[in-house]
Amino acid sequence: MEFFLAGIAAVMAAGILAMGVALLRRALRIRRAWHGGRTSEARCLRVFTSTTGGDRPTTHRSRVYEFTTREGRTVRFTADGGPDTVLEGDTVMVRYAADAPEQATAEPYRPVALAVGMGCVALFVTAALSLCVVFAVVVLGATSDEGSTPDDFPEEYSTDLPF
To answer: Which label site among 27, 50, 117, 132 has the fewest CB atoms less than 10 Å from its CB?
Structure first.
């Protein structure tokens, strides 16, 4: 049973680590697009709206943009979020890295917000991984002491009961 609980902690730790890596890659992709030095005008082709939740519904918008690179290549990409003022047919400025135009971004670059967000993600991942490790160590360590009496325990209080 203890190995099953430690396995659950390991699976949770792997999921948390994967989430942290995915968020870090997204932040680095945005930073790379902004520091890639290439800009282009893109046209908003479509706006998707999805609503989730029951009592407190949340609306989330995604947009499909299309632009032409300096080399003449036409690129389409989907961007999550963005300002509500951008509608189908609007033109916006996008930034992209020269070697990865399909990873363009129409988001405004906010280096402080990006750094603070990544710091919070790093703290959360570190704390969650630490909790998983402590849980696994406690679960595996607690079962090894079952049924044993400490050496300094007085003999007159000792019983042979299993609890």
So the answer is: 50
CA dist list (Å): 94 to 41, 107, 118: 6, 8, 23
The model carries a pTM of: 0.63
Could you tell me which of 116, 61, 51, 114 has the C-alpha nearest to residue 83?
Answer: 61
Q: What is the pLDDT of residues 87-112, one digit of tens each?
A: 888 999 988 888 888 888 888 778 89
Compute, in degrees rounded to 10, the torsion defined by CA atoms 119, 49, 102, 117: 0
Q: Helix-strand-coil percent breakdown of the chain, rounded to 5?
A: 45, 30, 30
Structure tokens at 70: 């300096």
Contact 94, 40 (CB under 8 A): yes
Q: Tokens 């400025």 sit at which residue?
A: 93
Q: How many residues does the chain have?
A: 163
Over its C-alpha atoms, the chain yields an Rg (Å, rounded) of: 26
| Cβ atoms of residues 9 and 136 within 8 Å | yes
